[in-house]
Design brief:
412 residues; alpha/beta; Aspartate Aminotransferase, domain 1; 40% helix; binds pyridoxal-5'-phosphate
Length: 412
């Protein structure tokens, strides 16, 4: 196929893809706007083929990684000892946090049957890590406000615990776990504590600077040993970029893998990948430097105003409610209780109606709800969304869908 044929064929394939460019998706793509796209486009083609596997060949990538990690570590109030790596995404950052905790437990406390304690709201990637690395996951029900239940988690911590997890905010309902209390549990046990700020890492620091209320979640909290934050979410950088930061270099050492007995030579690896694409690393550096603190403050203002507008608009529609009290840029929409206390309508049928109008929101449960992660790209269309949502609810007239499936992620 010629270049033109290839482009035409792939353009045709995308006909039914979610229209994130029009602000129609509330998840998966977090749009920082046209000026961010321009910067990323330019840098992506510069670094499309380079490889951060061995930075002796590409010293630029060593500098890029270390400057991105330092910028993030400063943002999260890591001290001079803090150290980390870029990874391919939140999942890889979380896998590395689990692996580092397991290694530390083994080295410092002789733990051979490691366990982690986490709320049921913590991201599924922690269970993936438990599965990959042979760590038992002790999953604890959240409290009525959807935050991690400190007492119940305390009761699950024992001499096998290598890791306690908290989220800032957690994904399903967008609330921030009580990080200081949870981190203290881990510290008392001699275990790692990971704050999962994959969602909040590039929102909460700027909310704080804007004077919004933000509970403590970062390295200023004693006992927090590592933090994950996704550049490719509200950092607005192209996909394939996240950071994991450890409080100290000593703690970071438990993340890495070194093998010096191979015919191919010395192998030192920070994370899961071998070959590491330079594109997401360089684009992350570019977008961070292009936006700067001022740019992130501006985009954060837009994001949280839009999320609040959305939450208030949802609350104003009879039959709907916002689940919990989201604290940043996530909004979960569910059916309000009707007169008999059961849900007034089928929220998944509402989701179908929205999809028919070109909107994309993930379904999640329990409780049955539609998930929205808001980003600046949604701002121009939020009133249109709320109008459509109201019309879909009105037109529903008791209709229900038999499909109760939820789908955060798929195989094929
Ligand atoms: C998105 C997300 C992750 C996983 O990140 P990926 O980049 O999708 O792998 C982990 N934790 C939270 C809270 C998230 O929102």
């Amino acid at each position: 196929m010629s270049k033109d044929e290839v482009v035409a064929a792939l353009t045709a394939k995308r006909a039914n893809d979610a229209r994130w460019q029009d602000g129609r998706t509330f998840g998966m793509v977090y749009d920082g706007g046209p000026e961010v796209h321009e910067v990323a486009d330019a840098v992506a083609s510069m670094f499309l083929h380079d490889n951060a596997l061995n930075t002796a060949a590409f010293p630029s990538l060593a500098e890029i990684q270390s400057e991105v990690v330092r910028a993030c570590s400063d943002l999260f109030h890591g001290g001079p000892e803090a150290a980390g790596f870029m990874t391919s995404g939140g999942t890889e950052s979380i896998l590395m946090a689990v692996k580092a905790a397991r290694e530390r437990g083994r080295a410092e406390r002789g733990i051979t049957e490691p366990e982690m304690v986490l709320a049921e709201s913590a991201h599924a990637a922690f269970h993936k890590g438990a599965h990959y690395f042979g760590v038992k996951a002790r999953k604890i029900a959240v409290g009525p406000d959807y935050r991690a239940d400190v007492e119940a988690m305390a009761a699950a911590v024992n001499e096998h615990t290598v890791l306690v997890v908290g989220s800032a905010p957690q994904y399903p309902q967008g609330v921030i776990d009580p990080i200081p209390e949870l981190a203290a549990l881990a510290a008392d046990a001699g275990a790692n504590f990971h704050t999962d700020a994959c969602m909040g890492g590039f929102v909460l620091p700027f909310m704080e600077e804007l004077g919004e209320p933000v509970p403590p979640w970062d390295f200023r909290v004693p006992g927090v040993t590592s933090i994950s934050a996704d550049l490719h979410k509200l950092g607005y950088t192209p996909k394939g970029a996240s950071v994991i930061i450890h409080r100290t270099k000593v703690l970071r050492r438990y993340q890495t893998f070194v093998f010096d007995d191979w015919l191919g030579g010395f192998y030192a690896s920070p994370s899961m990948q071998g070959t590491r694409p330079a594109l997401p690393m360089a684009c992350a550096w570019a977008v961070l430097h292009h936006l700067g603190v001022e740019g992130y403050l501006r985009l954060t203002r837009t994001t949280i105003d839009t999320a609040q507008r959305m939450a208030n608009g949802v609350r104003a529609i009879a039959g709907l409610r916002v689940v919990g009290n989201p604290e940043a840029h996530l909004v979960a929409i569910a059916a309000a209780p009707g007169e008999d206390g059961t849900p007034a309508l089928d929220i998944f049928a509402v989701g179908d109606g929205l999809q028919a109008r070109g909107w994309f929101l993930d379904r999640q449960a329990p409780p049955d709800s539609l998930h929205a992660t808001v980003s600046p790209g949604n701002a121009p269309v939020i009133e249109t969304f709320l109008r459509d949502l109201g019309e879909v609810v009105t037109a529903l007239d008791g209709a229900e869908t038999a499909d109760r499936s939820t789908n955060y992620a798929t195989l094929e």
